[in-house]
């Protein structure tokens, strides 16, 4: 197994995006930003009873990450590929293999509950795809906070979890 970062960043509650971004930055040799620093610069919706839980956490829109990179003069660029771009999980995995071979960090936004068995809930989450494994599996680096770490998941299950979230792949180079 290839390690993506020396130390996994465990997310604060509802801060999976800042934690993932800290790991992406560290992977690219940029260690000056913590998830706290990143969260201060992103639009973070706190977990409150009056706010639908689908809207908790970072609100990533088109150019949110590129704006963060530009503002902080970081030599990175994010390109978003919506899941609708792929006919099925086979095409998605082929693209992920190509991206990883080119040293591009691949972050996926997905429905956490859908991926792990409860297809009636809608908790959104992000993880880094670090490796394509045999038998149609992908290795994710999940920032948690619960059960943070590397996880092998079925590519087809992840494909449908991304579809359920109406999200895609955030490709950072």
What does this structure look like?
The protein has 173 residues and is α+β, with helices and mostly antiparallel strands. It is built from 6 helices and 8 strands; from the N terminus they run H-H-E-E-H-E-H-E-H-E-E-E-H-E. Strand 5 and strand 6 form a beta hairpin. Helix 1 crosses helix 2 and helix 4 packs across helix 6. It is globular. The chain starts with 15 loop residues before the first helix and ends with a strand.
Question: Helix and strand layout, with pairings?
Answer:
Layout: H1 16-27, H2 35-41, E1 44-45, E2 57-58, H3 64-71, E3 78-82, H4 89-101, E4 105-111, H5 112-115, E5 124-133, E6 137-142, E7 149-154, H6 155-165, E8 168-172
Antiparallel strand pairs: 1-2, 3-8, 4-5, 4-8, 5-6, 6-7
> What is the quaternary state of this protein?
single chain
- How much of the polypeptide forms β-strand, as a percent range? 15-25%
Q: For the CA atoms, what is the radius of gyration?
A: 15 Å
Give the distance, in angstroms, between the N- and C-terminal Cα atoms. 21 Å
So what's the overall shape?
globular
Summarize the structure.
The chain is α+β, with helices and mostly antiparallel strands. Helices cover 32% and strands 25% of the residues.
Any key phrases for this structure?
alpha+beta, 8 strands, two-stranded antiparallel ribbon, 173 residues, globular, single chain
């Amino acid at each position: 197994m290839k390690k993506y970062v020396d130390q996994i960043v465990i997310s604060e509650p509802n801060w999976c995006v800042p934690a993932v971004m800290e790991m992406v930055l560290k992977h690219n040799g940029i260690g000056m930003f913590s998830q706290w620093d990143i969260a201060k610069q992103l639009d973070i919706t706190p977990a409150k009873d009056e706010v639908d839980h689908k809207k908790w956490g970072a609100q990533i829109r088109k150019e949110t990450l590129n704006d963060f990179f530009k503002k902080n003069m970081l030599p990175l660029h994010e390109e978003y590929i919506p899941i609708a771009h792929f006919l099925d999980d086979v095409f998605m995995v082929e693209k992920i293999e190509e991206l990883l071979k080119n040293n591009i960090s691949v972050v996926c936004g997905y429905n956490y509950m859908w991926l792990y068995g409860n297809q009636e809930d809608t908790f959104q989450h992000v993880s880094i795809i670090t490796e394509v494994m045999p038998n149609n599996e992908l290795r994710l680096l999940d920032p948690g906070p619960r059960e943070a770490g590397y996880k092998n998941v079925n590519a087809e299950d992840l494909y449908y979890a991304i579809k359920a979230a109406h999200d895609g792949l955030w490709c950072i180079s």
